[in-house]
Amino acid sequence: MEATRRRQHLGAAGGPGAQLGASFLQARHGSVSADEAAHTAPFHLDLWFYFTLQNWVLDFGRPIAMIDSFELLYYYDEYLGHCMWYIPFFLILFMYFSGCFTASKAESLMPGPALLLVAPSGLYYWYLVTEGQIFILFIFTFFAMLALVLHQKRKRLFLDSNGLFLFSSFALTLLLVALWVAWLWNDPVLRKKYPGVIYVPEPWAFYTLHVSSRH
């Protein structure tokens, strides 16, 4: 219990990234008794709000601000970034998700602020999956999360508010990607640009071909 308190104190003092790691460690190692297992971490509104806002600003604002002098940076982000950023990113999310379970079904609920954040969070992951062309990595992570939920359910463990938020965001992302692909399924220009088996057009490609070209 003393070690758990120290981890919680360090997580609270280290900012959003430390809170994420501390919550993971607490969920993985803190359930040493039946009483402790019945309690779940509260929904980290400040963490998820900052995380969602930061992702939108960095990932959506970056292409807008891109100019010719940053071509090398763009090359790095477009090609090397897939291996050095996306894979660790989804791996960390899954590791965090694996600790978001509680023994109390009554505590498996999302508060109101969490419900409000699901839409912008899911929309951001949709942009990340489509613009980053990482649908395979995303769908693999989502089904791994789903398999973990079903596995833990057999042990009578349920997602806490943070796990429900993350799982709901991914589920919304999958729905948005499906609607996006269905909408552009018969687009001849984009079909030619993305001839592969997995057809997931990039939003910026759609904007360039069908929106900006009209002005």
TrEMBL record:
Keywords, in A-Z order: Membrane, Transmembrane, Transmembrane helix
Pfam families: CLN6 (PF15156)
Segments traversing the membrane: 79-97, 133-151, 163-185
Record has Membrane as a keyword: yes
InterPro entries assigned to the protein according to its UniProt record, in alphabetical order: CLN6 (IPR029255)
Protein name per its UniProtKB record: CLN6 isoform 16
